[in-house]
Amino acid sequence: MGKVLQDIIGADLMKEVCNHLGGERVYIPTRPFDENRNDKIERVFVSGVRSGATCMSAYEIAANHVQLSVSRVRQIVAANR
């Protein structure tokens, strides 16, 4: 993994990463973070509830829309309220 990462980011950035994070476990998401993701989740959730879906169904719809777990979507919706 280290060699692949160095090939992607270059030797200088690799040194910096090692200086800051060497020895740590680092989670690397499978796709870049969408800055509008939480707003999208909120809109899809509210839209689902307004159209007559139960809260649980609205959470499931929003979770499927952004490919997250229902639990994570519930956390995001709660934090936005």
Beta content: under 5%
Low-confidence stretches: none
Number of domains: 2
Q: Looking at the structure, what is the overall shape?
A: elongated
Biggest sheet descriptor: none
* Global structural class: mainly alpha
Average the pLDDT over all residues and give the rounded result.
92
Secondary-structure element sequence? Answer: HHHHH
Helix content: 55-70%
Oligomer: single chain
Radius of gyration: 18 Å
Please explain how this structure is put together.
The chain is mainly alpha-helical. The protein folds into two domains: 1-30, no CATH class; 33-81. The chain is built from five helices and no strands. The protein has helices spanning 2-9, 11-21, 37-50, 55-66, 70-79. α1 crosses α2 (11-21). It is elongated, with a radius of gyration of 18 Å.
Compact overview of the structure:
By secondary structure, this protein is mainly α. The protein has five helices and no strands.
Keywords:
single chain, 81 residues, 2 domains
Q: How is the secondary structure organized here?
A:
Elements: H1 2-9, H2 11-21, H3 37-50, H4 55-66, H5 70-79
Helix pairs in contact: 1-2, 3-4, 4-5
